[in-house]
Amino acid sequence: MNELAKRNRKTAIVLLIVVAALFALAFLEVGQ
Amino acid sequence: MNTVAGTVDEIRHPARPHGVWRWLTTTNHKDIGTLYLWFAATMFLAGGSMAMLIRAELFEPGMQIVQPEVFNQLTTLHGLIMIFGVIMPTFTGFANWQIPLMIGAPDMAFPRMNNWSFWLLPVAGSFLLGSLFLPGGAVAGGWTMYPPLYIQGGISYDLTIFAIHILGASSIMGAINIITTILNMRAPGMTPMKMPMFVWTWLITGFLLIAVMPVLAGAVTMLLMDRNFGTHFFNAAGGGDPVMFQHIFWFFGHPEVYILILPAFGIISSVVPTFARKPLFGYASMVYATSCIALLSFLVWGHHMFTVGMQAGAQLFFMYTTMLIAVPTGVKVFNWVATMWKGSMTFETPMLFAIAFICLFTIGGFSGLVLAMVPVDIQLQDTYYVVAHFHYVLVTGALFAIYSGLYYWLPKWTGHMYDERLGRWHFWLSAISVNVLFFPMHFLGLAGMPRRVADYAPQFTDFNQVASIGGFVFGASQILLLIVILKCIRGGPKAEARVWEGAEGLEWTVPSPAPYHTFATPPEVK
What we know:
The complex is a heterodimer of chains A (32) and B (526).
Chain A: H1 3-31
Chain B: H1 2-5, H2 8-12, H3 19-25, H4 29-57, H5 68-103, H6 111-130, H7 149-152, H8 155-184, H9 197-228, H10 242-276, H11 283-296, H12 312-324, H13 326-340, H14 349-372, H15 374-380, H16 384-414, H17 420-446, H18 461-490
C-alpha cells in the first residue's frame, strides 16, 4: 500500500471513530 | 506500440464497461457526480409535484383535491425528499465533480466507497416514495419525526426511519471521502489558504456531517427500538421523554441547515468573482466566517423549541447565540457585495442567480432574526411566517445557488455552452414567481395562518391564491431548466477550457468537457 493510501486510511479510521463515539453518545444522553 | 504495451492511460485505467454496467460499477468521480445530479433531479420532480399538489389544495379554503391525511403525507414527504433527496445529493454531486478538479486530485480518496455512497440513495429514495403505497399511506407526522406520532404510526414509519438510516450512512461515507480527499490529496503548493472557497465550505460541511449525522442515526435508531423492541426512550408512558427526542433531533437539525447552505456559499464565492472580474474580497475572513457559522450552529438548536417549555435563561442563551450567527453571515454578504463593488460586471445566468441569491437569501436570514426573538417566535411559531422564512433560505438560497453553479459549470461538464437566452428566461420567471410564491406567506403567518393544515379560514384566501399562482409558475418554469440542460448535453457552441473570461482555478486549466481522467500527474500550484 502506498504512502497516500495509508494516510487516507488513517484519516478515515479517525473519522469513523468520531462517528461511532457520537452515535454512542446519543444513546448515553437519552439513557441517563 | 500501443497494441503491445498500451498507452500510459490505458495501463492506469483499463477500458471501462458500457451501458448500465458502467453506471452501476463506476468509481470515477465525474460519473458519480453526474449520477448524484440526475438522482437529485428525479427526486426534485417528485418533491416538486408534491409541492404543486399542496399549493393546488390550498388555492381555496375547504377540501378540494386531497384528503387531510394525504395532505399531511404530502407536506412530510415534500420536506424529507427536498432536504435529503434533492439539496444534499445535488451538493454532493457538485462536490464529486468539482473538488478533485479544483484541488488537482486524480479522483476521490475512496472511489469504491464513493460508488457505494451513491447507490444507497436510490434505495432510500424508493423507500420514501414507496411508502406512499403502503397500507395507511406514507408518514404524515412531519419531517422532524417527533414522537409520539412517529411511535404510533403504521409500517410506513418503519420504512421511512430505515430510509433515514440509509441516507445517513450514505452522507457519512460521502463526508469521510470528501474530508480525506481535501486533507490528503491537494496538488503540491495548494496550501489550505489557497483552496477555492467551494472546497473550504465543503470541508467544513464534511465536518458538520460527521458531527451530526451519527446523532440523528442514534435518535432514529432509538425511535425504531421504541416502535419494535419494547424500549421506552421517548415513550412517556414507559418513563421515556419525548422532548428529549426534540433536543437530539435539533442538535442534528440546526447544523443540517448549514449543511444545506454552506456549499451554496461556496458556489456563490466562486461565481461572483468570475463575473465581477475581481478576486474574492476578504478571502481569509470568508474562511473564518464559515468556520464561525459552523461552530455556532451547535449552540442554537433550542430556538426550534422555544414553545416546548424551556427556562427563561435557556431561552435567552439560544436567542443570543442565534442572533450572533448574523455576524459571520453578514461578513459573507458584505464580502460578496464588496467583490462586486467597482468590478467589471457582466450578467450571464450564473451571475443573475448569484445576485438573486445574495438579495433573497438575506431576506430569509432577516426573517430568521425576527424568529430568533423569543417573544416574537412564541407568536409566530408553526405559522406560515416560518414556512416563508425557511423557503427563502432553502429555495432562493440553496436552490438558487445550485442553479447558479449548474449554469456556471455545465459547459465544463458537457463541453457545450448552454442556451443563454433560455437560461435568462428561466432566471427571470423563477426569480419573479418565487417571490410571488413565498413573500405573501409572511403576511399569512403574521395574520395567524397555521402551517401543516389542509384547510384554512376564508380571510386567508387572497394571499393563498397569489402564492399558489406563483407556485404554479415557478413549477412550470423549471421545465425550462430541463430543456436547457438537455440541449446543452446534446450540443451547442463548443465551450473553451476556460469557459468564463474571469474564471480562475485549476478546473479551468483542463479541456471542456473535462476528460474522463484528469490530473493523473498533479499540477504545481504557485
